[in-house]
Amino acid sequence: MGVMLCHRPDCESIMCDTYVDGVGYVCYECQDEFKEYLKKKGLTPETEGQIKRELIGFMKTEKDSYEEGSEMDVDGFFSSYSK
Predict the structure, then answer these.
(1) Distance CA 56, CA 72 (A)
(2) Burial of 68: CB neighbours in 10 Å, binned 0-12, 13-18, 19+
């Protein structure tokens, strides 16, 4: 078995077991984050095609963009950049 890198930007996971045609390898961490992404976006895809379309869009995002607890409002955003 060779090295199967997750196809998501900035993800360094190797030895992925899940391969989706048209998407590539998706590690377990990104699978969990995808579920969080769907929840935060209020999305409930119900068919394989719908899930795949959402996954394609999700895989273009940076890793840890949708992890639990990463929500931020505008004031918090500016505060994080203020001295």
Answers:
(1) 24
(2) exposed
Amino acid at 72: M
Contact 26, 16 (CB under 8 A): yes
Q: Which residues are within 8 A (CB) of 67 and not within 5 positions of it... i.e. 6 or more apart? A: 33, 36
Q: Which helix (H) or strand (E) covers residue 38, if one does?
A: helix 28-41
User: In tens digits, what is the pLDDT along the chain, a chain of 83 residues?
Assistant: 467 999 999 999 998 999 999 999 999 999 999 999 999 889 999 999 999 999 999 999 888 776 665 565 667 767 777 76
User: Is 83 part of a structural domain of the chain?
Assistant: no
* Within a domain: 74: no
pTM: 0.75
- Cβ pair 19, 25 in contact under 8 A: yes
